[in-house]
Amino acid sequence: MRIPFLSMFMTSPFDSLQEHAEKVKECAWVFQHAIECHMVHNCRSFDGLREEVKRMEQEADAIKRRIRGHIPVGSLMAVPKFQLFRYLREQDSVLDALEDALDWISYREEPGIPEQFQKEFFLLIDSVIDPVEELSRMVAEARKYFKGYSDKQRKVVKEIIRNIRKQEHEADRAEDIVKKKVFTTEMDPVTVFHMVRLAETLGHIADHAENAGDMMRAMIAR
Amino acid sequence: MTAEYFVLIIGYVFGFYMAWNIGANDVANAMASAVGAKAITIRQAIFIAGILNIVGAIFIGSHVTDTIRKGIVSTDILTDPHMAMIGALAALLASSLWVSFATWKSLPVSTTHSIVGAMVGFGIMAGGFSVINWGKLGGVALSWVVSPIFSLIIAYVMFKIIVRLILVRRSAFIHGMRLSPIFIGLAGFVVVLSFLFKTPLGNTLALSDATALLTAVFLAVVLGFSGKWLLSRILRDQVDGDVEEIFRRIQIGTSCYVALAQGANDVANAIGPLAVIYFLVKTGGVAGTIPVPTFLLMFGGIGIACGIAMAGHRVMDTLGNKITTLTNTRGFSVDFAAATTVLAASKLGLPVSTTHAAVGGVLGVGLAHGFEAVNFTIVFQIMLYWVLTVPAAALTSMVIFKILEFII
């Protein structure tokens, strides 16, 4: 504090935002692992992986709280504070959606996902993970944009956002395919409900990633 | 007389201590943006600041000092040499104490204002409230508000211009190179004018305002184009390089200027009272202005350099690590705003510290969304200490004056 110049600079919330995005990405990978394990028979590590996802979600929550709690009144930032918070909320909702999906599976671990739907579910999971993986890259590129304000860099960020939107659309299609197939197959109604709801929960993951992208679009608006 | 020589020795010790403090603390503020923006390394900053502070103190620093800084106290109180000597010592001790306290408690205070406050305290004790030039003191108070705001506006505009004209462009580097003479020229204009108006070097040349302006414009144009030529040679291999690289080179120039100007201006804070004591001991009388021997200036300059060498490293280390979002374009905006503010303020006769101007500059860039995050509220805290410094140093000075009156 003896040096006023120094004390004006605070730790950038973008550092933590980036950290949070990385956490989301890692969590998505563990999630994918867990759900793929669940689909093959004799999976023993599902519960362990689910715990892992829960733990990571809590860590990410701590980062989120740290960001929200450490922007004092009168901070000047590259983007308005509440825009940043709204973005953060969407990024965090991705994690919640990942957790929800695993929880939903755990409510009815046996008999699990019927074999005839597994291919469709694999595709759906891949397509909801894709946009989530883009988030951390988007944050990194956006930070570069805030440094230079160059048009070129802004295009890069916009391209990522567009890409996320496209991937979310893909995920929607995959979700539709799963649901259609579930409804057209003769099965007991409990399994139908479990599968349809699982497909929807998985779809939410991509939805939140897309929302995060939209929030980022608002942040880089001129 | 042994007592007087005793006072002189104490004066040397505390004068050196004040100089050391200027080096340890204020230099970091001046070189902060350059180090933060990684225009220069910490080692380079310490070397440049040390050498240029000594050079600035000796060759540009005032060889004639106002007995009382900035004419805040009437010189009538100096008619009694004994009292003048006690007063100068009290002022020096009080400001040293206050600065030490600030360092210990990590408070953001300016050495300039400490010495001003100490002088006010001594003035009140020696001649009552009537000897204080309240108008001038009001000017000091005004500068607390005016200089950051002025600097804020310039930094804001400068950064916006850089963003609009260069950064957003598709081929930003080429645009940057094309416009570089303007930015180098602008910086050069302010630097040349500062040297002509602010320093004793300019006083000896004694140019009229109009001539000085013309000289500055001419030199700025020359500097601008030769600077561009130099830049295009240095950055020859970069066809589509980084704009920051251009501003990095310009910033090296501006930070050199800041170090030089600081040595020239701030050395008087440390050795002003010492010079008064020295003059009294040697001649037995004192006047409104007294000559400062070169060895005293050198003494002060070396004191500043010692402060930089011994404590500057620690400060700048934190600076370089902590401030990661300060890039060269931002650093240049801050430097330019600070230099312009200091120039304008001193032309208006307002005492202003580089620190205050730099703080305003950072806020300006922050308002222009130049930083990922800076804290605005801290400014109010900083301002509180700016306001507190003068009465606090004044009170300390009064107490010490009374004690010294008993002893000597």
Instruction: Estimate nothing, just give the exact number of structural domains of chain B.
Output: 1
Distance between the ends of chain A: 35 Å
Cα separation of the termini of chain B? 12 Å
- The strand count of chain A comes to 1
**Class by SSE composition of chain A:** mainly alpha
Q: Give the CATH H-level superfamily of chain A.
A: Phosphate transport system protein phou homolog 2, domain 2
Fraction in beta strands of chain B: under 5%
How many E-type strands of chain B? 3
Average pLDDT taken over every residue of chain A: 91
Uncertain segments of chain A: none
Q: Per the principal axes of the C-alpha atoms, what is the gross shape of chain A?
A: elongated
* Sheet with most strands of chain B: 2 strands, antiparallel
Report on this structure.
- The complex is a heterodimer of chains A (222) and B (408).
- Chain A has a single domain, classed as Methane Monooxygenase Hydroxylase, Chain G, domain 1 (Up-down Bundle).
- Chain A contains seven helices and one strand.
- Chain A has 222 residues and is mainly α.
- With 408 residues, chain B is mainly alpha-helical.
- Helices cover 79% and strands 2% of the residues of chain B.
- Chain B is built from 13 helices and three strands.
- In chain B, α3 runs antiparallel to α4.
- The chains are: A mainly alpha (222), B mainly alpha (408).
- β1 of chain A pairs antiparallel with β3 of chain B.
